[in-house]
Amino acid sequence: MNDGIDGVKRILASKPLPAVALVMACLMSGVPPALAEEDGGFAIVEAQPSLRDGQLRLSLTLDFQFTDKVSEAVRNGIPVTLEVKVKVERPQQYWWPEEVAAMRQRYQLRYHALAQQYLVRNINSGAQSHFVDVHQALASIGQIRDLVLLKEADLADLDSYRLRIRSRLDIGALPVPLRLWAYLDPGWYLRSDWYEQSLTGLK
């Protein structure tokens, strides 16, 4: 049987069944339980925008620290998806900022017990890499280089734009049997704060 399904069964077997009313209330409200207690596992360490070959590019250094529950799930063969969202915005004085561009870089991480390796798949490009250690796998995901955001010609005045960046674990991409539990468990709510950086002075 699939390692991921077996992993879900092992994790769910150890948890008591919550009341259906509680489950539905949490999911419909859209508010994660005890989120503040678990937030801060992911961080944007550094963002380096640049202009090259007529394109606005971005290199990122990210830090991913799993909770024990997520680490256990990965070791049991559960695939997890990490997402990095990047926005290019133009702030406006009396209104919401204008969103000029937005993109998501998505990576799936899973452990193959037979090979004893961690597989990282770039969902956007399909590229795959293998690692013997989960920390090496996460460090690899955390080094994003030369991500093309926009053509320079699409930006009228660089000084009037900013970048906003956030990383998160995508609970919605978990296998269905585990997803419901994860929405109720603060140990799964891993995301960084929004990181902002102006493009002022970029040459």
What does this structure look like?
The protein has 6 helices and 9 strands; from the N terminus they run αααββαββββαββαβ. Strands 6-5-4-3-8-9 form a 6-stranded antiparallel sheet. Strands 1-2-7 form a 3-stranded antiparallel sheet. It has helices spanning 3-13, 20-29, 35-38, 68-75, 134-141, 176-184, and strands at 42-52, 55-64, 80-92, 95-112, 117-122, 128-131, 143-151, 162-169, 195-198. By secondary structure, it is an alpha+beta fold. The protein has one domain (3-198). The model is unreliable at 15-40 (pLDDT under 50). The longest helix is centred in the first third of the chain and has 11 residues, at 3-13. Strand 3 and strand 4 (95-112) form a beta hairpin.
Structure summary:
With 203 residues, the protein is of the alpha+beta class. The protein is 25% helix and 41% strand. It has one domain.
Question: What brief labels describe this structure?
Answer:
203 residues, alpha+beta, six-stranded antiparallel β-sheet, three-stranded antiparallel β-sheet, 9 strands
Topology (elements, then pairings):
Blueprint: H1 3-13, H2 20-29, H3 35-38, E1 42-52, E2 55-64, H4 68-75, E3 80-92, E4 95-112, E5 117-122, E6 128-131, H5 134-141, E7 143-151, E8 162-169, H6 176-184, E9 195-198
